[in-house]
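Appendix B, Record 12. Input sequence as logged:
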Amino acid sequence: MGQARLRGTPEQRKQAAIERQLSLRPKYVKCNHCQAELTELQPIDISGMRGIEAAFAAHCPHCEHDTFAIKGEPEAVAQMHMAIEDAAGSESLAGVVPAANRK
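Logged structural output:
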């Protein structure tokens, strides 16, 4: 029997991956543009993204900018950051979520 079967059905493995990602969601992030505290963080589908443990996006209702929270290996995070910049067509800022802000 393969290792995947020992971890459950495909649906169970997918649900476990979603729960792992959601457990890493910070309480809030600060908007990279206006510094407002954003608590509505939507998970980003990270399936197939090697080195990324979790990623979330928040849209600021005050200034209409998007802010992202990404956790993973530094090189993978940098690559995802560059992909977000390419998709947005503009430079974005990187920040750090303080330990006290994590669940």
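The chain is about 30% helix and 20% strand.
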